[in-house]
Amino acid sequence: MSAELSVTENEAKYLKLIYRGQCEESTKVRTTAVAKSLGVRPATVTEVIQNLSEKNLLWHRRYHGVELTKEGIAEAQKLLRKHRILEILFTDLLKYNAQRACNEASKLDYRASRSLINAICKAYGHPEICPCKKVIFSDPKCKKK
Amino acid sequence: MSAELSVTENEAKYLKLIYRGQCEESTKVRTTAVAKSLGVRPATVTEVIQNLSEKNLLWHRRYHGVELTKEGIAEAQKLLRKHRILEILFTDLLKYNAQRACNEASKLDYRASRSLINAICKAYGHPEICPCKKVIFSDPKCKKK
DNA sequence: TGTATATTTTAGGGGTTCCCTAAATTTAAA
DNA sequence: TTTAAATTTAGGGAACCCCTAAAATATACA
Fold this sequence. Notes:
DNA-binding; homodimer; 2 strands; globular; 2 domains; Arc Repressor Mutant, subunit A; mainly alpha
């Protein structure tokens, strides 16, 4: 029973960004880079990172980078699964290009329920790759048959 | 140029509720009823109503009810259009029932962009009635041809 | 190896939004 | 007209997110 602290929508944005950097691009995630990317000041990034750290979603070594914990990775993957399934919906149904689909998905992913995402996933044949060729994480609750 | 103040997601919830009461059920919208409906205290409702009133979205006569202004009605209809188009998506694509579609739509409607909604509207042939038989307001920017 | 420069973190605030309780006030009903 | 119900004020509080200025640390290069 991991007294799972909830993640705010803003924190979710950080998690997705950090995950992409750390796990998909293998770059060292730097405070300043995150700040530029999100349009806030470095001090703000440090603060949010400290909150995420208190929630055990990442590991923070002062003046060095951050590293997502197992829980942080799991949370980021849940979020990115939602994001990418929504991208599939928008490219398939609405013929959006990858960029636009990503934009719209970013506005909704955090709010989309797990069951909604799984229903969409099923409707589109359990896709494994999103429009920008990244992997779509699977959900054990999302039955293929 | 109506220096249009933005509406928070919570305020949007109030607007939708008040619109349904006032315009679709012709009931007098009472503070206590809203409070029960949203699970908050009456004093909280009064406060939010005062904010909406300052944004010129409704008219508040102390100790009597509220009445949406023209701007309030327009805003509520924009929100409900989004809500109902999303309901169409979920019932058509995912075979959700009206109730469930409404639940999911409630989580996303506020965040869905106008253009996304119009794209979905087009994809589903510009529906005019939502799953629970309410009217789907039209958007002049949503071209039928 | 120092020292200058860049990066990051702390300290100290501020604003918004949403919520609450308790005490008034006003309305409506008996 | 009194009383009960509904509503509003008054006065707080907590969560979040953001900022500037100053301190601490790391890094890069003479």
